[in-house]
Amino acid sequence: MTVSKITSLAHINRGTFYLNYIDKFDLLKEIEQEIFTKIKTILLEKETIDIIFSDEKILAVISYLQSNAALITALINSDLKNSIQEQLANLFKNIFTENNANINNPKIAQPYASNIIFGSISTIFITWIKNNMQESPKELLNIINSYRKLTPIDIFS
Q1: Cα-trace Rg, the chain
Q2: What contacts 69, CB < 8 A, 6 or more positions away?
Q3: Which of 31, 30, 54 is nearest to 42 (CA)?
Q4: Alpha-carbon distance 20 to 14, whole Å?
Q5: What would the DSSP string read from start to end of 64-123?
Q6: In the structure, what pLDDT confidence band is assigned to residue 49 with cuts at 50, 70 and 90?
Q7: Long-range contacts of 139-145 (CB under 8 A, 24+ apart)
Q8: Which residues contact 113 (CB under 8 A, 6 or more apart)?
Q9: Mean pLDDT value of segment 113-118
Q10: Which of 40, 94, 103, 146 shows a CA-CA span of 20 to 30 A to 57?
Q11: DSSP code, position 144
């Protein structure tokens, strides 16, 4: 994708683009930052029951991703997939750590524990996006909750 193509699709001139962004990578960085900021805002939003990863908040994240499906899918299907998956896992880990738990003494040593838990949840989201968001938000929530409750042996039996 070139700046010319971006400006053509956005119906703006190149000068306007360069007033706001250094280059296409700067635009991409800003888009990614906006996505992750929105997800963080959803997860940290105060509710009557203040549970960071409540079903309602996970459904809100899923709905946000669905409402931005074209952009999210384009990012995931690009060379940025691994970077986005890692950023998503880190976002979940950071929110969980800051608000919910001390993860320095888990039953499995760090960084393995965090990578297992938060990497797996981000993988579920990435897989769902790569599969064109075929499952409904409720079905995806059920998959995430099943993962959170079942052991690996239970998942495959």
Answers
A1: 18
A2: 133
A3: 54
A4: 10
A5: HHHHTHHHHHHHHTSTTHHHHHHHHHHHHHHHHHHHT---SS-SS-TTHHHHHHHHHHHH
A6: low
A7: 140/62, 141/55, 141/58, 141/59, 141/62, 144/58, 145/55
A8: 103, 106, 107
A9: 87
A10: 103
A11: H
By the 8 A CB rule, do 35 and 68 touch? yes
CA geometry: angle at 122 spanning 98 and 143, to 5°?
Answer: 110
pLDDT tens digits, one per residue of 50-99: 677 889 999 999 999 999 999 999 899 888 888 899 999 999 988 888 77
CA 45, CA 40: separation in Å to the nearest integer?
Answer: 8
pLDDT of residue 108: 86
Tokens of 84: 């986005």
CB 36 within 8 A of CB 87: yes
CA neighbor of 40 nearest in space, from 113, 109, 92, 98: 92
* Omega of the bond leading into 111 within 30 degrees of 0 (cis): yes
pLDDT in tens, 10-43: 999 999 999 999 998 899 899 999 999 999 999 8
Element housing 152 (H / E): helix 152-156
